[in-house]
Amino acid sequence: MKVLQFTIPVAHDKTIIVQKDILPHFYPHLHRHEEIQLTWVQKGEGTLIAENNMHAFGHNEIFWLGANQPHLFKNDPSYFTGRSKKTIQSLTIFFNPDGKLGPVFNLEELKNIRSFLSKYQHGFKLPETMVAEVAACMLRIQQSKPVDQFIHFIELLKQLQGATQLEPLVSGSRLSSVSDHEGLRIGHIYNYIMQHYDTDIMLEDIAKHAHMTPQAFCRYFKKHTRLTFVAFLNEVRINEACKKLADGTYDSISTVAYHCGFNSITNFNRVFKTVTGKSPRDYIREYSLPGYD
Question: Looking at the whole model, is its pTM more than 0.85?
Fold first, then answer.
């Protein structure tokens, strides 16, 4: 996995880029670009990494990602098996608020939208109650000719600007910017964790993978993610556990725990509550998930 400064292909006569994807899986590298991104996941599931935060994503969800915000829609492992017939479908709108659209957003009439763009540089997930309305507007943008497309684009921003209960993708302060070299290195570490979270990852193993001593790795990881390695690994594991609990295909909570890298159900329960604020059983009850033994 790499953190890449990604260049969105833009025609000279376009300021709003609409991209429809039907692929075996989402783009598999951590990346960033100067455009703001609004993605409607029409089909697919996995984990969204936004900076050092993780969120499960699934069908019919919409996410806003800020300009130059490192991110990755990481599909579940089942998408990468040799015989997988799974596909993802998405509709994405890209725009650069500081490019050709800059003078437009500086108009006094759009000051509320300008404030909205500034407020949500960390990105957000759209509440379920707004998905149908915003998705319909995104379709109108996709299907319209240039002038009407621009009008619908402003209407879309007006809808979003008036929204409430937007779920931030990043908690706390935003990470400081990193060089492309450091981004590549961090992405390499993220990928190793995402691929091996269900095994007994030792600090020595991940440090060796990053070509560092354990002490140097701990300092490096904390500096660039503001999390300890153990805290980040636990968040990955609990995020995966939540998806498995919701899926309902496992026969017990302890089975889910062991499939997510925990060797002790007691430790799993403790970490689950630390990360989510509730016990696994409370999580199951709250979301009306299938019963577990």
Answer: no
Per-residue pLDDT, 144: 94
Here the tokens at position 107 are: 């108009």
- Three-class DSSP labels, the chain: CCCEECCCCCCCCCCEEEEEEEECCCCCCCEECCCEEEEEEEECCEEEEECCEEEEECCCEEEEECCCCCEEEEECHHHHCCCCCCCEEEEEEEECCCCCCHHHHCCHHHHHHHHHHHHCCCCEECCHHHHHHHHHHHHHHHHCCHHHHHHHHHHHHHHHHCCCCCEECCCCCCCCCCCHHHHHHHHHHHHHHHHHCCCCCCHHHHHHHCCCCHHHHHHHHHHHHCCCHHHHHHHHHHHHHHHHHHHCCCCCHHHHHHHCCCCCHHHHHHHHHHHHCCCHHHHHHHCCCCCCC
pLDDT of residue 136: 97
Tokens of 125: 């997930």
* Structure tokens belonging to residue 255: 């089975």
d(Cα 217, Cα 208) in Å, to the nearest integer? 9
Task: Report the 10 Å Cβ neighbour count for 22.
Answer: 10
Nearest to 217, CA basis, from 262, 260, 177, 185? 185
CA distance 270 to 219: 25
Tokens of 247: 């899926």
Distance CA 122, CA 172 (A): 10
User: Do 88 and 75 touch, CB atoms closer than 8 A?
Assistant: yes
Cβ neighbours, 10 Å, residue 196 = 16
Q: What is the mean pLDDT of each run of 10 residues along the chain (293 residues)?
A: 51 82 89 93 93 89 94 88 90 94 94 94 94 97 94 96 90 58 76 88 92 93 86 91 83 92 95 92 77 53
